[in-house]
Design a protein that fits this description.
about 200 residues; mainly alpha
Length: about 200
Amino acid sequence: MQTMSGYRFSGRVAALVLTAMLLSGCGINNIPTYDEQVKAAWSQVENQYQRRADLIPNLVETVKGFARQEQQTLVAVTEARAKATSIQVDASTLDDPQKMRQFQQAQEQLTGALSRLMAVSERYPDLKSNQNFLALQSQLEGTENRISVARRDFIMSTERYNTEIRTFPGRLWHSVMYSDMPLRENFEATTPDAEKAPAVKF
């Protein structure tokens, strides 16, 4: 036979279970869930930029073989790549607006340098028809498209997270339980055409 204290214990357990179910239904887990989605989306942005950086040395070497006199352009691309890969924004610095701006500016400088390198090939028909160059050009074009998609996904994830902690009931849960999780810095274009993938077709 169950004692009075047993009934009280069972009642408390049931109340705790009911409270947990109600809280989960009220979106209490949305903030950490959306925060993790922002971090995952940023990882994809970084992965695609790294993929682009990995293509550049082979591209530079191929162009150099046909257009050695374009030294200034080749050096500009190499230096822009070095700068872009030296600035890292990970989960711990994702909320730093200055770091994000530095990262974006470095990537945009690299995009500009790559566009100038691609323009060089117009003057060298043998380079334009080289199979290695055509393969690298195709990979670069695909990577630029992946960068655009990854950036879009990151922007959408950040907007969803920021909206959650600024609107009800997320704002309530943020103030009570997640006040140490700030608004996320979003990826903003610093030049008018920054959101567009550079044209690398010929």
